[in-house]
């Protein structure tokens, strides 16, 4: 049994939908005070209201991870409303799918600004508050795409997801003196609102390529983040946890069929 995160102040960026909403739900259900962050205010408020209706403590903040002023305001809001910041889940990310030949350079910049610079800005803004925590935690949402695998159309995306890990491996050293850990979760294919729209057949084919035989749930990522944020994970820093049902393990389709 892990020491409870009850009463800890947690920020989750990109928490109005998908994986971030799942992370926020897991923390709220374990008694944490959660700040739900997304650009679309109505969506952030709706997600926070859902968490509150289920008995959690949650507030919404309309913020953009690409904007330094906005990230500073986000950190100030969490500190004011929840009495500090103990955990930052830097999760906000986008994944437009465009091959290099067709990609406008502005799309490259936008993906970098959101996924990579956005991680840096949110972490930098929260750092002064995390330093005051008795065990600050930063959990990045990276991906298997980039650090481990590739997929056509995601050169920019994969580069940002690798970049987050490069950032993490030095940031964890810089922040160790404050007792702050920095780790990353690498999700595989997770069922989110966007993915469910691709249809039953597509989801079945994807599930068949995964040893555990199913796509991930957003709570699978939330549970990994919860562990990394726990007191018991205090000696783990600069590390990754892949949460993909074993997807990256088989060396061929034959290997999967053989099993
Ligand atoms: P999603 O369902 O599209 O949700 C993205 C969230 O991020 C929304 O809340 C969105 O709200 C917010 N967001 C986007 N740009 C933002 C910005 N500039 N500032 C603040 N918030 C912003 O995405 P997802 O599939 O859950 O993915 C979340 C993270 O998981 C990403 O980092 C992604 O790379 C990673 N991931 C996902 C999968 C998967 O299978 N889904 C697999 C591996 C990794 P607004 O648009 O209102 O801002």
Considering the chains and any ligands shown, give keywords for the structure:
seven-stranded parallel beta sheet; 259 residues; alpha/beta; 46% helix; Rossmann fold; single chain; binds NADP nicotinamide-adenine-dinucleotide phosphate
Structure notes:
By secondary structure, this protein is of the alpha/beta class. The chain has a single domain (3-258), classed as Rossmann fold (3-Layer(aba) Sandwich). It has 9 helices and 7 strands; from the N terminus they run E-H-E-H-E-H-E-H-E-H-E-H-H-H-E-H. The chain has helices at 18-29, 41-53, 68-82, 105-130, 155-175, 193-196, 200-208, 218-229, 253-258, and strands at 9-13, 33-38, 57-62, 87-90, 137-141, 181-187, 240-243. It has a 7-stranded parallel beta sheet, sandwiched between helices. The longest helix has 26 residues, at 105-130. The radius of gyration is 18 Å and the shape is globular. The model has no long low-confidence stretch (mean pLDDT 96). It binds NADP nicotinamide-adenine-dinucleotide phosphate. NADP nicotinamide-adenine-dinucleotide phosphate (NAP) is lined by residues 13-20, 38-40, 43, 63-66, 91-95, 114, 118, 141, 143, 187, 189-190, 192-194. The site of NADP nicotinamide-adenine-dinucleotide phosphate has 31 residues, from helix 1, helix 4 and helix 6.
Layout of secondary structure:
Blueprint (H helix, E strand, L loop, with lengths): L8 E5 L4 H12 L3 E6 L2 H13 L3 E6 L5 H15 L4 E4 L14 H26 L6 E5 L13 H21 L5 E7 L5 H4 L3 H9 L9 H12 L10 E4 L9 H6 L1
Parallel strand pairs: 1-2, 1-4, 2-3, 4-5, 5-6, 6-7
The structure holds NADP nicotinamide-adenine-dinucleotide phosphate.
The site of NADP nicotinamide-adenine-dinucleotide phosphate (NAP) has 31 residues, from helix 1, helix 4 and helix 6.
């Amino acid at each position: 049994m892990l020491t409870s995160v009850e009463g800890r102040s947690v920020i989750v960026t990109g928490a109005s939908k998908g994986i971030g909403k799942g992370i926020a739900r897991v923390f709220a259900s374990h008694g944490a005070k959660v700040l739900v962050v997304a650009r679309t205010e109505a969506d952030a408020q709706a997600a926070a209201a859902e968490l509150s209706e289920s008995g959690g403590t949650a507030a919404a903040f309309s913020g953009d991870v690409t904007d330094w002023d906005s990230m500073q305001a986000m950190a100030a809001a969490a500190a004011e409303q929840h009495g500090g910041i103990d955990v930052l889940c830097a999760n906000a990310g986008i994944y437009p799918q465009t091959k290099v030949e067709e990609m406008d350079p502005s799309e490259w910049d936008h993906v970098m600004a959101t996924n990579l610079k956005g991680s840096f800005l949110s972490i930098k803004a929260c750092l002064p508050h995390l330093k005051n925590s008795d065990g600050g935690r930063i959990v990045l949402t990276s991906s298997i795409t980039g650090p481990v695998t590739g997929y056509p159309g995601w050169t920019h995306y994969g580069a940002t997801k690798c970049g987050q890990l490069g950032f993490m491996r030095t940031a964890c050293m810089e922040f160790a003196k404050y007792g702050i850990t920095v780790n990353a979760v690498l999700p595989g294919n997770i069922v989110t609102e966007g993915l469910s729209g691709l249809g039953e057949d597509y989801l079945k084919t994807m599930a068949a390529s995964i040893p555990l035989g199913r796509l991930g749930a957003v709570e699978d990522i939330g549970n990994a983040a919860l562990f990394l944020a726990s007191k018991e994970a205090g000696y783990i820093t600069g590390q990754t946890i892949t949460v993909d049902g074993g997807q990256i393990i088989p060396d061929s389709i034959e290997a999967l069929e053989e099993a």
